[in-house]
Write a structure and sequence with these properties.
The chain has 132 residues and is mainly alpha-helical. Helices cover 83% and strands 0% of the residues.
């Protein structure tokens, strides 16, 4: 294979330069793609952590209600008590956030749909039981 154009030093130099540019562009494209995927995963992880913190906070309100809130006479009259109302409010927020997380998981190809669906169903049950 004898290519006459490659006999010239200038042509070989230009060919090498363009080959190097292609390699750099490929590397840059790969880097940007991977960085974008990592950003999506970091965002998903942050949202999941926020839901976990909300859950722990709501559990604290439920414990406060179980320890002292149900003793308040106003609770038996109106059915309202600050700690249990905060618990139920956070549970509603958790349910909404879990639905958002499911969408993010699907968009980022994170195979956690079943687990998130189960958590969302349990959260909805908690809200329903708390409404009685």
């Amino acid at each position: 294979m004898n290519i006459p154009l490659l006999k010239f030093f200038k042509a070989r130099l230009l060919l090498s330069f363009f080959a190097f540019i292609l390699v750099i562009l490929f590397w840059l494209g790969s880097y940007l793609y991977i960085d974008n995927r990592q950003a999506g995963l970091r965002n998903f992880s942050g949202e999941l952590t926020r839901v976990q913190i909300q859950y722990l906070e709501s559990t604290g309100y439920l414990q406060k209600f179980m320890l002292s809130g149900f003793h308040e006479p106003e609770f038996y009259i109106s059915g309202k008590q600050q700690d249990i109302d905060r618990f139920l409010s956070l549970q509603k927020s958790i349910s909404t956030d879990l639905a958002t997380l499911r969408k993010h998981a699907e968009r980022n190809n994170i195979h956690a749909d079943k687990q998130l669906e189960n958590l969302q169903r349990l959260s909805a049950q908690t809200i329903t039981m708390g409404a009685y």
